[in-house]
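Researcher: Structure prediction, please.
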Amino acid sequence: MKKTLFNITFMLAVVLCQGQSKYSNEFLSLGIGARGLAMANTMTAISDDVTAAYWNPAGLSRMDKRYQLSLMHAEYFAGIAKYDYAGIGYKIDDRSAVALSYIRFGVDNIMNTTELIDAQGNVDYDRITYFSAADNAILLSYAYNFARVKGLSVGANAKIITRGIGKFARAWGFGLDLGLQYNNKGWQAGVLLRDGTSTFNAWRYNLTNEVIDVFNQTGNEIPENSLELTIPKLLVGGAKYFEMGKGFNGTVALDFDCTFDGKRNTLLRSKVMSFDPHLGVEFAYKKIVALRAGLGNFQREPDFDGRNRMTLQINIGLGVCIKNIVSIDYAFTDLGNLSIAQYSHIFSLKVALDRFKKQQ
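Model: Predicted structure follows.
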């Protein structure tokens, strides 16, 4: 029974991977860093540290430290899925910066029971092995701040993606992101064309005889090498930064995720495009402590009476900076369980390495 369930589950996973582009590489849409997640991913216009390599690479040029390191770990579905991020940024000069980022979303220690029963029909639990289903991405980023147009910066990501389902399937892909930011007197705007070149994943399958038997028995086509495309997505954001006096300041940001693959379950949608708005706010005291909140993930869900009701996701967070060197951020997503998404506690760490280098 376990063998059959595993084979059917794997078969469905492989079939879903073939040729589907609407939700391809969605692990790269989750967001990174507790600050951005607490503000409901409204970072297109305001990202200005090492995490900008993900949110909008143009923001890397606004880093206020020469070296920055950021780490994050999160768990989803009661710890079944692990989500990890690591990034390092380097400010080349006053106008340019580079960064290297790594993102992984995976489920580990999945039991492989395809060989649970030996050739004589005996159940042998020693024949159980384990594998992982994981998505990985490496981002190489560059940003440049123009001298002739004050406040205008551009950036780009080169992405290498690898996805794997144990020894059964493996995909490699490549894509580009292009970003722009503009800042003037507290007003901020940002645009990111994610997967501007249509990021692709080239899948290659290595199916065992047991899995092929299940495909044949259920009348499904045995998968061959295939190409999966990720359609470009346009992220547009605007924000206002304002001083409140005595060291207090605030930021209000509004972002729109624009997709071009038809109707999605978003607040604004048409047969051609869908728009997913999200709002974030941050109140801070100097660069010491910050309180954050975000509103997003608007969706229509069927109720018990068959009618659709609007749901949303509320996030909150807290950030603390110690001596302008170490920043610890926390986010609690889906406050009040108002959305279909599961709540999560997320921590991230950011370290500015300038002072360490000077001490050496």
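Model: Confidence is low (pLDDT under 50) at residues 1-20.
Researcher: Thanks, that helps.
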